[in-house]
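dude i think i finally got it to work??
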Amino acid sequence: MSLGEPLVELQAAPAGLDVVIRRVALLDPEDEPVAHPGELVLAIGVRGRAALPALRAGGRGGAAAVAVKLDAPGQAAALTEAAVEAGVALLSVRGEARWEQVDALARAALEDVPLDREGVGLEEGEGDLFSLAQTTAVLTGGIVSIEDTANRVLAYSRSTDSDEVDELRRLSILGWQGPEAYLSRLRRWGVFQRLRASDEVISIDSHPELGIRRRLAVAVRSGDRQLGTIWVQEGATPLTERSEQALTGAARVAALHLVRRRREPSADVTLTATLSAGLLEGSTGPQPLATHVGVDPGRPAAVLGFSYDAAGATGPELARAEVTNLISVHTAARHRSALVTPLDQRIYVLLPQLPRSIDLGTLRSWGEEIVEAAHRHLGLPLRGSIGRIVPGLADVPASRREADRILDAMVRAGVATTVAALPDIQAEVLVSEILGLLAERPGMRDPRLTAVVDHDDRHRGQLAASILAYLNAFGDVRAAAAELHVHPNTLRYRIRRAEELTGLDLTRADQRLLAMLQLRLPPSEA
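look at this
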């Protein structure tokens, strides 16, 4: 859940922190205490030990968590013991918080959070405001809240250290909007006037005498209209070097959410994702998307592709959502019209309406920023590819195909470069595609080379690796032997043995060329 300090505090999690919350339920003290699987039960109207029946009902019904209010600190121990015994997570809610506030924020946080493989999950290309706030907090190193123009809190990032949260943030979340005394100071300092007049990031100095730490703020705008504000409070450490850039991107992504909330949210987001995916795949033309998002289909465009291995990540769906949000924030900061679309196991950035002067070097630097941020903030090894810059949206499928060719080659060939355009690894891409043909068409392979690989499999030999090292070294036996960590005579014996077993003749150029290609296939494909 996105709810945390200062609104709620986790007291017990007997089933761990990966339990999925599917819905929010209110339990009135006059109701029979019941719960259902996956529910976050809000035990309203009871405090302290009076919430014990709700906890036990939550355990019996398979609820994910039960939230209660405490009368005194000492009550936490008894309730925690009961929660552990019942096997249900226990959340304690601050006494000043209103239950309707907790209910509304919890439901908002669950609107688009990825649930499981069977759930609707995160809208393609967009996260909810809570996950956007969390991504912005990661990129800035601060504590984030998103508010509407009436200074009501719409979403905020989690904070595990209560010492980092200043009094303004605490009061804002508990009261669901900024405290009037501080809002008045912001008006006197001209902060709101600057936010209404500009989309630039504004810095607000710390005021220790007021218990207020340094902040950055940026308006969330749609054209000339302000829809809200994103605030970033500095915590125990300074904000990151690129905080302002991240905040600019976050404001543009937040604007899409807030505009769509005022229309038909799910239908609009789904239509944008469908049109974008259709254009990338070549199944729909450019005009529907251009009309829907308001871009010129005749201006230059390009596609960036990203892939990552989430096998080691905690929850592949969550990792996908975090990466998508991070890419969305970074690309929105660089290009207002960017559209982020996850397809299959990759994430694509469609960049319509590019300046005619843009070049691959600029796009490469954008991709490198994203890859570096994913490594630094999420610990994920991201690969990025730059599709060709095409004259207009009609040619976007060609740019996407080129981005895919590059990513395929980076994976197959183990290219060390993390972000590349086709000119960077042209040879690797072409060799990779030739290897793909060999893998798909066994009839194109030399059966003598296949026999070498089979012999190695049966006898745990190194003949195939020795031939390949020998050819890669242009026949330099000493260099190839050093690469394999064997004596040169051992390598000479292996080459002769392979030729005797199969009839290969490595003095012939065509056989050397085919051997260099075929022996690069993975053993499972060779």
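Residues 286-426 form a domain with the Alpha-Beta Plaits fold (CATH 3.30.70.270).
im so relieved honestly
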